[in-house]
Write a structure and sequence with these properties.
The complex is a heterodimer of chains A (356) and B (351). Chain A is 75% helix and 2% strand. With 356 residues, chain A is mainly alpha-helical. Chain A has a single domain, classed as ABC transporter involved in vitamin B12 uptake, BtuC. Chain A starts with a helix and ends with a helix. With 351 residues, chain B is mainly alpha-helical. In chain B, 71% of the residues lie in helices and 3% in strands. Chain B has helices spanning 24-28, 32-48, 51-82, 89-106, 108-112, 116-146, 153-175, 201-223, 225-235, 237-242, 247-273, 280-295, 300-320, 325-339; strands at residues 180-181, 191-194, 197-200, 275-276. Chain B has a two-stranded antiparallel ribbon with strand order 1-4. A two-stranded antiparallel ribbon of chain B has the order 2-3. Classes of the chains: A mainly alpha (356), B mainly alpha (351). Chain A binds chain B through residues 60, 64, 66, 116-117, 119-120, 122-124, 126-128, 130-132, 134-135, 138-139, 142-143, 268, 272, 275, 279, 319, 322-323, 327-328, 330-331, 333-335, 337-338, 341-342, 345, and chain B through 85, 87, 145, 148-149, 153-155, 157-159, 161-166, 169-170, 172-173, 177, 282-283, 285-286, 289-290, 292-293, 297, 323, 326-327, 329-330, 333-334, 337-338, 341-342.
Chain lengths: 356, 351
Amino acid sequence: MIRSLLSGDTPRSLPLALLLGGILICLALAPFLFPGVRTVDTAARICVFIVLVASYDLLLGYGGIVSFAHTMFFGIGAYGVALASTHMGRGFDAIAFGAVAGALLAAALALVIGLFSLRVRAIFFAMITLAVASAVAVLVSQLSGLTGGEDGLTFKTPRELGPAFKFGKEAFDGTLFGVKLNGKLLAYYFVFLGALVLFLGLLRVVNSPFGRVLQAIRENDFRAEAIGYRVVYYRVAATCLSAAIAALAGSLYAVWLRYVGPDTSLSMEIMIDILLMVVIGGMGTMYGAVIGATLFVLAQNYLQNLMGAAAELTSALPLLPELLNADRWLLWLGVLFILSVYFFPTGIVGRLRNSG
Amino acid sequence: MTDFVRPKMTAAPEHAPKMAEVTFRDRIAPHMPILLVPLIAIAGFIAIQNPSSWLTLTVSGLAMGMMIFIMASGLTLVFGLMDVINFGHGAFVSVGAFIGISVLMLLGHMTEAPSLMLNLGAILLAVIGAMLATGLMGWAFEKVIVEPVYGHHLKQILVTMGGLIVVEQLIIVLWGPEEIYILRPEALKGAITFAGAAIEKYRLVAVGVGLVVFLAMRWVLRRTKIGLIVRAGVENGEMVQALGYRLRLVFVGVFIAGSALAGLGGVMWGLYQEVITAHMGNHAMILIFIVVIIGGLGSVEGCFIGALLVGLLQNYIAFIEPKAALISNIALMVTILMWRPMGMIPVVKAK
């Protein structure tokens, strides 16, 4: 049962299996284990980022293609839901329509970019996606009539997903293990289950014959071509699929936040975060996305405070407090990133699998 | 003995061999990229219909193109020579701008004086400082970041991107997070009027510097021994190594020169925008990539033409429909890639 759910791709290492199981349980029971607005918010962010990073890993780790437009696809999904909810009125139909439209648009855009760049050389793709993504980000902030510009859009999700909606009054007296049964709880499980389904779907994809061919192309595209696989076709298909799933992840995030804006969905900073999560977790293993996203989001939320404290402790020394300032978080991430690409190319998952 | 019937000799059929006529299309094809520049300028003239604004826009487009070329040329050569793609190239632009502007601020007495010679002297000192710093930085970048990942595109992209982030953040640590506004030197402020068009003086300087850099680079690549080795290396590196040249050393040299040029471009870009931020290199990278792609990765001439096209088109479009300016570059790139998928002047590898 579990084997077939995981598409035959088991963790293959005891510590890794324990870690993944722990993360799954913590996420599944997050509202009960860690009640609190901030912790549940962190858990939802982790769920969304797991899907986002896993879809990026399909491209980077399995396809060997570097894209800088992943946040653009993420944003398309988020804005799809936001625009649909604004113009069609709150409701699940608006969410579904926005998510599907966003995913289709993302896939279509990926198809166009992929056909233009991947047929020549894979390296064009990285440069072209960077250019297109930044153009789109500027466009979104300029078209403020439609997208709300820099301020973004706040919209209403269905009443059932909002904190005002209470249920289970008769059966449980409105609370379960001390947790209020309201729409926010439902929204969390909406995000959690959506993320779980998408992740298992991705696991299915990479362990299918299609995924094998992608890996073959990553290892040696010339040979794959010689065997008779149409390299461009596979690469473009992977790009489209990955874009569509990133857009769905964006939709989930929009449903959770009930807000979209350039900073939460389109910024280059998120793109760098995604790159880091993939590399730290382990490229070319879907489980790497789980571990990378979890560690990273936790670190982002809690380590920054620690850095602030360290900066205060060293405030007497020159330059050091500047370097340890919480705003310089990105500096240390960059250093960590370079070091992990050099010394740790298989990431945490690769290390655990090799050692066990 | 039978009679051997000789076949009757006939004259060879009338035949006047003639070379297939080279069509006009074929003859013009190799020159098409360079012809695109005046074509775009003419199209802009037709669209704008106002000679004096057209002249203003053309000069500013040329200036912008020249500055992009200065920044992009190093990237394209480095790729052509060693197949290394440096996503951190923008870092040199930022660093160059910050160091150059800091030097200019130190030389306040020279920049505030209304003498053109003193002003240009100050800029020259700033440029030298910036180029030295970015050249050194390029050398370090090559040693620390690029060298361990030769021949591995995926890792190169990741690692150089990481390098860009680190450098950007270090700039913020050293110079603070706020953007720095700057004033151009006294003699370069304002505009001169020519045929009813206001042309900013600084843009003329930028066009001049860009042309000098382009011609100098062309001269080095075409007329000197080192240029010969570089061009041969782009075409077939292994052969050059087999002939006993240390291509690796040449490559490091090209990397340093390219970084220094990016620094020079950064100073000029900063003075052009009159504001510098730590992220300016990252923003410039977008234009640089577009230029390098449409020019053909590895080709200096293609890069030059591509930069002029981008500069001109962006200025014309920004005048006609401001919101479409950024999209116009993407549209230009798409059109060119449809026409020539490898870029306008693709580099032929003899491998």
